[in-house]
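step 4 of 6: structure.
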Amino acid sequence: SPEFKPRNKYQNARRVLNSAETQNLPGREEQLQELREFFTSHLETHTSGSLYVSGQPGTGKTACLSLLLRDPEFSKRLQRVYINCTSIASVGAVYKKLCSELQLKVSGRTERDHMEAIQRHLRTAKKMLLLVLDEIDQLCTSRQEVLYTIFEWPALPGARLLLVGIANSLDLTDRALMRLNARCELKPRLMHFPPYSKQQIVEIFKSRLAEAEVLDVFPPVTLQLLAAKVSAISGDVRRALDIGRRVVEIAEQQKRDGEKEFNMKALELDGKDKEEAKEKQDTLKPVQVTQVAAVLNKVYGASQNLEADIEDAFPLQQKLMLCTLVLMLRNERNKDISIGRLHEVYRRVCSKRNIHALDQAEFAGTVDLVETRGIIRIMRKKEPRLHKVLLQWDEEEVHASLSDKQLIASILSDTSCLGK
Amino acid sequence: SRLAEGTPRRSIQLSNIVEKRVFKEDEIISTPKRGRTKKVPEDEDEDEDEDYTPKKSIQKTPTRSRRMSTTTKPSTTPSKAISTPSKGAVAPMTPSQKMKKIRAGELSPSMQQRTDRPMEDSSKSQLQLAREQLHVSVVPTSLPCREKEFENIYAFLEGKIQDQCGGCMYVSGVPGTGKTATVTGVIRTLQRLAKKHELPAFEFLEINGMRLTEPRQAYVQIYKQLTGKTVSWEHAHSLLEKRFTTPAPRRVTTVLLVDELDILCNRRQDVVYNLLDWPTKSAAKLVVVTIANTMDLPERLLMGKVTSRLGLTRLTFQPYTHKQLQEIVTARLGGSQAFKGEAVQLVARKVAAVSGDARRALDICRRSTEIADADSANVKCVTMLHVQQALAEMIASAKVQAIKNCSRLEQIFLQAVAAEVTRTGVEETTFMGVYTQVETIAAFMGAAVPAPGRALRLCAKLGAERLIISEHSRNDLFQKILLNVSADDIHYALRVGEVSS
């Protein structure tokens, strides 16, 4: 806000790259057009229809539909209702929510009364209804009675309803709503939102950055790199914006650190040099490729971080535990390792190295702590001694990064501890 | 109001809530805290003091023991019995009136005060002062060794508050690495800045997954921190939804701290979805900071759409190294000479090798002061020997001792299980095989062989002690027996015992 410090370009870029809703959606022109056509064609013919929109998280499904819900073109001719299915108390409570959205008078308090009220409304409504159900997979139950009821409303005699369901999986209607296929008029029209391509992500960034006139913060090559990486992995625009924001934050941080250093130096410099240097400092440095690459590596590289992880701040006993596990995995045929067995070998390893070994209770706690890092997983059994330990990271990689260190390497080559 | 607990309404016991009404300013009615104050007037100013002096009230979080005592102890409030009639003007409340007042937040829950005053600080010994300083609940104003993380969270939150937009952050790390302390420290700093008008004002809410009986109670707690009222979760949810989705001018940024995120994940994950979806609404200005232990929780447990909303702003707290632990303990002790330097170092090294948990280090240090205190030598300083004793108590196991203390036949039984495991090569043995071994060993030792019925009793006893894992004894001869201690431990315990005896 203006009464506080003046904002620099980094801050503006950071603000404009937020992952909240926006007005314009570059890269979704086709889908918007298709949705518009669907709505207008049904409006003109006064017929009901249902539509199922699917796509990966962060591909702009909700954004497109909420843009259309706000569109004044439809506001006169349609009554619009948006329901997010994660915010209802139970699956059957969706009727009640819909009643309150439609401001219907309901005689009874049961689910059935609400449902009947809606159906009465649908038959007699003056305006056509556009009902958008977001995260519709939350309504799935074993018998799917709610989903079927809702998707059968367009076929109610006299009903004029445009029903849109949004979810992630492509085949929800084939999996959960098979019986709708039996009747052609009930079959929802499918629409898939593909993940964003590289070019689309670049466009989104450009339009966002242009909004606050901070295009010069991101040179094109950094945008290309970021977009290529995100589109190759997920095509999720929330991720892309997150990474973009991270990059700006890190650039800002580095600049601030630079300033601190500079101020220290400036104390030593005298008058003229000081001015000169200050000018140089004030010009904004655009984000560099190395900064983007660093963020991407941190986000997407799992095992690259492994070596750094094991090097510092990895407690010794946890290292020994992991070494023992790798040793057993590499040298034993039986890959199913219980905590009891792991502990036996670990004790032998410790006694050879003259390290005080933990007892079983403490050892189980240590294994738990390593699990929180995601390196291993524990399959819980009835007894703690029988829990199974599974290595989640690539065995070869763990071995390679472990065998660099001296102590650890000597353990890994010591098969006599396995004892047989 | 940290006292707010996620208790379902029914379990609020009326007897626990000492009447203390919130009055308007013009009403001057002093609520008697204890019956005695009425009768003995000169007690009164002493009582007044008590409101300020109690040391315990400085600590922010009510410790578990304190909280437990409020719910378990049937308070025999003499105050209530006497104070209610003495009010005169105010008619006594029926239980339902009282519940109504509690739910509307008009009665603040108070706890009974102690009758005697807490000890003066000046009369405490050096060791005692050190022990109080070392208590886990005494959070230092600035956390040593967490400067980088502080900077990181500070930059994130400051940016979000200045930008007036929402966002999420995920903080992870093993227990006792200073996650919650750092985050609340950052928020305290920001609140101080906002007070001085160097930063836009913001609201701060916090919930803890473990304090909720059910994930959906999170809505109740959040709403309660906003308005003070207790409502049902459906109602709270719809009110929160209204608050966060409809734009309101002059809406201030809200920072929501969610501790123990993994507890809030149920199968539907609707609560976490909603908590992380609200920040994406531009009207909400909600910043959610989530804390959990597992580093890869978003990938492991959460649905794709929830992970996508959680974002990539993440921070991992690494376990403390031994140097850091040493620094933490020395910072706690201040300039006190109660600890020998090498004693602190030993604690730090032992703890850093296992978990890097600061709570553990502090607990061991406290135990060491207790041992030093109890020491008949009447020393004023904790030495290596005290620390070693404390470590032995808190880290070492008692299994070998337990085996040594078993009866003769039980020891034979344990030996027999170990022998059977070596013979068959499989870890799981049957009672039948073990019994044969018992017969052999007993014959070798010249001891009388117990009948199988009695041997089952031995087996059940060892199973209850968890030295072995056994099935129910109704499958008598065919029940499976597993050794719960290592075979080496048995040999070690029994052989060392034989030599000494």
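step 5 of 6: annotate
 - Residues 1-87 of chain B have pLDDT under 50 and may be disordered.
 - Chain B is about 50% helix and 10% strand.
step 6 of 6: archive
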